[in-house]
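Quality-control log, excerpt.
Job 1 of 2 completed; input and output follow.
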Amino acid sequence: MFDFIVRSGLLVDGSGNPAYRADVGVRDDIIVAIGDLSSAEAKDSYDAEGKYVIPGLIDPHLHEEWVCMVDGTYGFLLKEGVTTVVNGNCGHSIVPGPLENILQYYYGNGLMSGPQVEKYLKTFPRWDDFAGYAEAVASRGSNVNFATLLGHGTLRWSVMNGAHQRKPSPYEALAIEKHIRHNMDQGAFGISFGLDYVPSRYADLDELCDTINIINEYDGVSACHLRHYIGIYESTEEYLEAGRRTGAKIQISHLASTEPEAFDLVKKAIEEEGVRARIDTIPDSLGHCTSKPRLLQFVMALSDELFAQGIEGVKRALKDPAGREVIKQDAYIFAGDKSSKYIINSGDPHLENRSVADIAAERRQDPDETMLDLLADDVPYTFWMNAPAANTPSKFVDHVDTIVNNPYVSVGSDEIMGDVEDPFDWYELRRRGSFPIFTQRYLAKGVPYEEIVRRNTSMVAEHFGIHRRGRIAQSYFADLAVIDLENYSYPEVDQNHYKNPLLEASGCDLVLVNGEVSLRDGQVDRTFAGRVLKKNNPAI
């Protein structure tokens, strides 16, 4: 007697091998049989005739570590077929504690609003390390599995009592190492760097390598948000050099498809030099939608000078010519054509869904000054950053053949936690559909579905050291998704799509997480069957 059988589906097992028809039998949380189970009995089953049965997808780049403390349903992930995520990216992580310190770090980097911080201080459980965080997640529940990275920024902030533009002292470096070893021993999967953000941006190549060498002792992964301010290609080369010097596994985070030469650089380093690197990319994005208070936080986070002054310092700078020059120089989000920066959800109907460039032309003003004026005024609205300009596709749309055919590239949605109770505070467009968008786009370019699945399952699991997941095989955990490939999609956009921040994918008909049905016929069930995974514990 099986607990569950997925019957008659086309099995794509995650290895890259051709699909074949088979049943999958599950007992408890484990796949125990694959083959012809037509005569076998089960407590429950699902007819997958004409559909694909795949391993649960793995997203190696999210920022959803807080959301489960408010609501661990994660329906948008299940509807893509995602069962495991890697949190703690871009240098930002949930440890080490205490909670007050972590929340202050997240606020300082624009990742949480002031009201969120105040609310979470009152409602969240307390933890000091990875083990405490794992216990807190278990107490609240999650529909998906978590693998967690340590954030270099959080570590530096915690040990050095804030963001300081200097190297850690020998004593501080030892304290950082102690935190790393303590949390890696408890099950963390590696570390991440956010080289655009304070204080990770203050780390030179030697500091990166010293840190990565510690992680490498555990065969952990070191993921990196590159230094965009020096150029993506140049920063890719910098991080590849860290991989060369340490011999460690490295992950290049959300590499933009606008830089195909950087993808080629990584592929060459892997195949000709043996660098242990992988890439994740956002398959399509129409940019961030960010409320004015949150954008002010980002301006603060991206400026060494303004960071020390806080939000009030940013507001003062907006009213001072010298301060405005500092903002324009330090905050790279201001760079580029202002036709890709829109005002939306505005308290002023005259500004609604208009680009900053358009508003500047009407005001007969320099677009940079218009942007600063809009930040400085008292009108409530949301900035749509990196929006597609008129008749221009989004910056991530063009995946050239060299990217499409690069076997080391997976999806990394970079879905970022916003305020669950206020989805318009901060959201991204199209990222909740990253996996169906990637799938359909790459199918159209001739990539076999089996290869698409491999890149987003077993390749990620093997690189990150996620045990017994990412394949459909006996003794592996029963993380499974049934995909109606013809209908596996994400809603197309229209001119008002920014008004729908919570759109979800379709075409995923069944999801099992650790053997429990978490989605069926497109409907999400709050089973909370997900687990906080531990690199040092294959039994979880």
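Job 2 of 2 completed; input and output follow.
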Amino acid sequence: MKRFLKINAADNVAVALADDLHEGETLDVEGVAVTLREDVARGHKFALRDIAAGENVVKYGYPIGHATQDVPQGGWIHTHNLKTNLRDDLEYTYVPKVYDVGCPKRDVRVMGYLRGNDTMGIRNELWIVPSAGCVNGQAQAIAERVKRECDCSHLDDVRVYTHNYGCSQLGDDHANTQRALAALVRHPNAGAVLVLGLGCENNQVSALKEVIGQWDDERVKFLVAQEVEDEIDIEDLIEEEQCVFTLTQNGYIKRTGVSEYAAQGKGGMGKKGITTREEDTVVDVFTASTHDYILFFTDTGKVYRKKGYQIPESGKAAKGTNIVNIIQVETGERVQAMLHFREKGDEKLYLTMVTRNGTVKRLPVETLKNLRSNGIRALSLDEGDELVSVRETDGEQKILIATHDGMACVFDETDVRAMGRTAVGVRGIRLREGDYVVGAARAQAGKQVLSITENGFGKKTPVEEYRITNRGGLGIKNYSVTEKTGGVVGVKVVDGSEDLLLVTRAGILIRTPVADIRTTSRATQGVIVMRFKEEGDQVISMALAEHEDAPASDAAPTEIPGPVENPAE
């Protein structure tokens, strides 16, 4: 192995390739004896001749800087005696070189599409170009409807060029966006172009037209949503379907059709449900309709709102889209919880919020009707606390709060008065040291409480076994937590007709019928609902979906009985 390298014949330095180049050693560099003046580390340079202060240091055959002091032959060259030749002000002149390639002209015929401005495209596509990112969803809905209802056999494709710009850009950024969009409009591969604007964006369609210049009226059309009379509700263009919404700790969110997650027998290992970075984990998952409102609650107590279809759709193994591209969260602000609901006319509804430290707050939904794009304050959080659950209630519900260590508290919703947006809330459950709230649910009579643990265990218990306790007390035993089961990760109130979705830290998702999970008493360990492919993996979130028949499975659930006599109260 070579211990040093002179890269180019013109170089006045060589590079050490080994760690054992020591002071006093003499090296033969292309017939020149060079004695090292000091140790030279691997990857560092040494002088092949005396280099005067101000003289260029040459490597690769080109100057890489100049010596700031005299460097003797064999001297170590590094940042202490080498400075770049670059200056703050760089004078640059571009002088192009023109070469005659000697290619004679000849008649060549190419299959393509001749446009009215004498340009030619090699594809014939319909393009929808949004003026701003806020109409991306509408543009995609139009494209989907065109594909569904129109004969597109003469088209190569129907494309939407979505982007996140055009709303509040200024200066060169704004001008660059306009030029990029104008280039798309003029591109000959588009046989027809629809430029779609909102009407209140910074990148107004009227100004964009000036950048586009001349266009063919038969080929290019413009639509500004807020200028259209009797406009169609965009929601009418979007097919309603149930989807799984997944959120990661690092703020990646995605929407995936429920049908992509095939049901499995209880005790299965699931399949990859999301791709995450090594340091990222799933923090929330639920099912909702594309027509439902999705509320995003952040660690600062603010709430944002979007329609389900406005969340970009992704495959089940995709990592999703960073939420900062969907809602205008502030720097450092992190989404902690999501809720889906649908407006129901004049019905009096509330959002009952529960924090990790056991605080409860009941907020009238009507206070969130005029949500701005930058969100509004919905909850004031104590330092170190965070929102873990939000449930829609009607003023007549019983609220069940469950903790990681297996306790639960049930009380009437009206025990918590309705409060304003800035209020902190009241104590819902008193926690033992080290314990914390993992979820909350509406304890409806005739249904069952489904509890799931970190290690994939679960059970159902009739709601009637959970007696009403005082708000703010320790509650009663909900789960017999052991080292084998791990702590409780969440609860849902079910009627047995649903499918359960579980997501693990490794991004594995399983869908299994709730009816297959055994009904037991409160103080038991339950059965194995999910096994793990990777050692050390854990369940971190749960959701419900409409039932889908599961194929026969070889994996049989394993019942782990726990103590049932004299359950702890």
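Post-run check on job 2. Helices lie at 136-149, 171-186, 205-212.
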